[in-house]
Design goal:
single chain, 5-stranded mixed β-sheet, Thioredoxin, about 35% helix, about 110 residues
Amino acid sequence: MSTNLLATTDQTFAADVDQRPGLVLVDFWAEWCGPCKSLLPVLGEVAELYAGEVAVTKINADDNKATSDRFNVRGLPTLILFKDGVEQERLLGMTSKTRIAALLDRHLEA
C-alpha cells in the first residue's frame, strides 16, 4: 500500500477530512468487499500521483458506522471527494484510475 494512502476512523475524521484544507478523497470500504480490494492498488497509484495536491484516505465502513451513516453510504466502494471539508462529488462502485484522475483534475483546476 502507498505511504500516501492514509487511514481514518470515526474518531479522526474531523481532523483528517472536515478540518483539512484542500481536496481529500475518501474511500469507504469493507473487508468483505471484493471491488474494494480491487480498488486498493488503483487508490495507491492515485495517492502517489497526486501527492501534495490531494489527500487520499480510506475508512472501513463496517468499523466506522457513525461516519458511514453521516454520509449516507449505502454501497461499497464509495469514493467521496471533499474540498475544505465540504462534499463535492461521489463515485460509486469499482472505478478506473482514469475516472478518478478526471474527477480530481476537474476540482484542482476549479
